[in-house]
Specification:
Shape: elongated
Structural class: alpha/beta
Largest sheet: 7 strands, mixed
Number of helices: 13
Order of helices and strands: HEHEHEHEHEHEEHEHEHEHEHEHH
Helix content: 25-40%
Distance between the termini: 62 Å
Number of strands: 12
Oligomer: single chain
Bound molecules: 4'-phosphopantetheine
């Protein structure tokens, strides 16, 4: 591996330590081509590995670089590579956990023009989501974040915006500052089936937040009539014309899902005092598990205060008319699926 361009062009980098997955020269060259010609300001290289990305940026004109890495052997390789490229005087190397170093950078008010995040593929999506959600505050205006991954982005801020290119088995996404700082909210529920009340809450949430992820989850106290994929398909159909809304399946804890999606808020609809107790309990528990995630309640319209998925299931199962209770686009499907009670409403 060599530095491709700039003052350190041609510098041969130190052997890659085992367990470190380096960005190949080909991918590095393609990433820098995609970033353009001019490099200046500060660069932050997270999960730095051999430090090749940050050193390439220093070689091409960035004034300073911060490298963050946990692995001892990789840290030694970064220091050796900085020495070989003769850029050590412009670099700071932090040993330790990326999350903790980010917190410190945020406290110190640091700003970067270019941030590389190349997390080892084994790192959980929840951790990566947590890291990404903090990068907005560290990114200078006009700055960009480059994320490398072994699979196509699925879910989360990364998949909503940004340009992803594939180089063999490597996916590289470049995000602008506005795409990182966008505020994502999760609107969770069992949606069995989605009602006009749900749709109203989703629509109103989409006017407040930059992106709303409707999370079709499992409520352990209820046994759904329809599999989650089917429920999600119905929601996709009725939200198709609303901008910046996507639908995902959620298994597991809501707080984990929200972190994976890079979400800052959970949005719930509140119909009446009777909803309050259970919602209050869930919000408190979620806050205990994830204090940075805010639960926001949107008051249901008065005409929806009586409306629930269980009422729709009950009416449909006895052959009653659910027109006006579920969105028109799925009226027939709901009638077909939920008619014919098996006693489970
Ligand atoms: O439409 P519902 O049935 O009121 O939705 C409830 C749901 C799915 C939002 C809730 O059960 C949930 O968050 N499930 C995920 C599991 C979880 O995080 N449980 C802890 C919440 S206290």
């Amino acid at each position: 591996m060599r530095i491709i361009a700039g003052t350190a062009r041609g510098t041969r980098l130190a052997p890659v330590p085992t367990r470190v997955r380096p960005t190949s020269d080909f991918v590095r060259e393609s990433v820098f081509n995609a970033l353009g010609q001019f490099f200046s300001g500060e660069v932050l290289d997270l999960y730095a590995g051999t430090g090749a990305l940050g050193i390439e940026a220093l070689s091409r004109g960035c004034e300073g670089a911060v490298f963050v890495e946990k692995d001892r052997r990789a840290l030694a390789a970064i220091r050796e590579n900085l020495r070989r490229a003769r850029v050590a005087d412009r670099a700071e190397v932090f040993a330790g956990d990326v999350g903790r170093v980010l917190d410190r950078m945020l406290t110190d008010g640091r700003q970067f023009n270019l941030i590389f995040a190349d997390p080892p593929y084994r790192i959980a999506a929840t951790e990566v989501g947590g890291v990404l959600s903090r990068l907005g505050a560290l990114l200078a205006s006009g700055g960009r974040v480059v994320i490398e991954s072994g699979e196509a982005p699925s879910g989360g801020t990364v998949s909503k915006k940004g340009v992803t290119r594939r180089y063999g088995g490597t996916y590289v996404t470049i995000l602008e500052r506005s795409e990182i700082t966008m505020i994502v909210a999760v609107c969770p529920g069992s949606f069995d089936p989605v009602t006009v009340g749900h749709l109203d809450i989703i629509r109103r949430a989409s006017k407040i937040f930059d992106h709303v992820v409707v999370a079709v989850g499992a409520n352990l106290h209820k046994k759904p009539r329809l599999p989650a994929v089917e429920r999600a398909r119905l929601i996709e159909k009725v939200t198709a014309e609303i901008d910046d809304v996507s639908v995902e399946l959620m298994d597991g804890l809501l707080v984990d899902f929200a972190r994976e999606q890079g979400a800052r808020a959970i949005v719930k609809g509140l119909r009446a005092v009777s909803d309050f107790e259970s919602e209050f309990e869930q919000a408190q528990l979620n806050r205990t598990m994830s204090p940075e995630l805010e639960t926001v309640f949107i008051m249901a319209l008065a005409e929806h205060s009586f409306l629930s998925s269980s009422a729709v299931r009950e009416i449909a199962s006895f052959g009653g008319d659910v027109r006006g209770l579920v969105p028109d686009g799925i009226l027939e499907t709901v009638r077909e699926i939920y008619s014919g009670s098996d006693g489970n409403i």
